[in-house]
């Protein structure tokens, strides 16, 4: 599986936007970019995914660089409930049923 | 209704015992997984079943034996428990054929402590 690199931790203030970066310089053409998050004492939950184009959903936006070697998860207005570990994961198109988790970014949201 | 439910949520046991963790999903999914999250918080896939058939078996000791009686259930049985088995075990499911775009739904985890 292609590797992703994320900062270990980030901090944000409540109601401000948060940009969580992810580098994936060895991404292949068939890899999808997925983001999951894990709230304290809970299982991971799906946030968003994309292939080439930027994506928006009710939880977040995903901005994908033109060369696809990096992406950014955007939380438009952070809330205290968004404090979690955020995982950026590459999944291979033809065979990518599994999720291979890295270390993720621990997001702290300050009131 | 909980989509993916695991029982028990907490399990404390002695070394050498045998224990099971059960997982059920009511999403109609065909593919289910077991993941292990150790004390350093790394999440690692252990097994995957599709329609009751084993399709992923990572390098896991054979003391761990998954069993899928039907496609809605994937249980994890662990023999001769060791201290290193202490972890949080997560069950997950996804729709068959969804490949790299399918969303995985995770349970809340089962925290196993081996004394």
Describe what this molecule looks like in 3D.
The complex is a heterodimer of chains A (111) and B (115). Chain A is an all-beta fold. The N and C termini of chain A lie far apart (37 Å). Chain A is 0% helix and 47% strand. In chain A, 38% of the residues are buried. Chain B is mostly beta strands. In chain B, strand 5 and strand 6 (53-57) form a beta hairpin.
Distance between the termini of chain A: 37 Å
User: Average pLDDT of chain B, to the nearest integer?
Assistant: 90
- Biggest sheet strand line-up of chain A: 1-9-8-3-4
Instruction: Tell me, briefly, the overall form of chain B.
Output: globular
Largest sheet entry of chain A: 5 strands, mixed
Oligomeric form of this entry?
heterodimer
Shape of chain A: globular
Counting helices, strands and paired strands, the structural category of chain A is mainly beta
User: Biggest interface and its residues per chain?
Assistant: A-B, 26 and 28 residues
Distance between the termini of chain B: 33 Å
SS class of chain B: mainly beta
Beta fraction of chain B = over 45%
């Amino acid at each position: 599986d292609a590797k992703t690199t994320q900062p270990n931790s980030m901090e944000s203030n409540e109601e401000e936007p948060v940009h969580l970066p992810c580098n994936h310089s060895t991404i292949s053409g068939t890899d999808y970019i997925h983001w999951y998050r894990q709230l304290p004492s809970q299982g991971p939950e799906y946030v968003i995914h994309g292939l080439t184009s930027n994506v928006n959903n009710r939880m977040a936006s995903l901005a994908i660089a033109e060369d696809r070697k990096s992406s950014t998860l955007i939380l438009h207005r952070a809330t205290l409930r968004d404090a979690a570990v955020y995982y950026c994961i590459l999944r291979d198109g033809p065979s990518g049923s599994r999720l291979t988790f890295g270390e993720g970014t621990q997001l702290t949201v300050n009131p | 209704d909980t989509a993916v439910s695991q029982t028990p949520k907490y399990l404390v046991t002695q070394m050498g015992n045998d224990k099971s963790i059960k997982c059920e999903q009511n999403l109609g999914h065909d593919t289910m997984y077991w993941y292990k999250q150790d004390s350093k918080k790394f999440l690692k896939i252990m097994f995957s079943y599709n329609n009751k058939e084993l399709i992923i078996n990572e390098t896991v000791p054979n003391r761990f034996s998954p069993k899928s009686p039907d496609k809605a259930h994937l249980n994890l049985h662990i023999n001769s428990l060791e201290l290193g088995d202490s972890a949080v075990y997560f069950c997950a499911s996804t729709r068959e054929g969804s490949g790299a775009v399918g969303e995985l739904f995770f349970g809340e985890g089962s925290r196993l402590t081996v004394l």
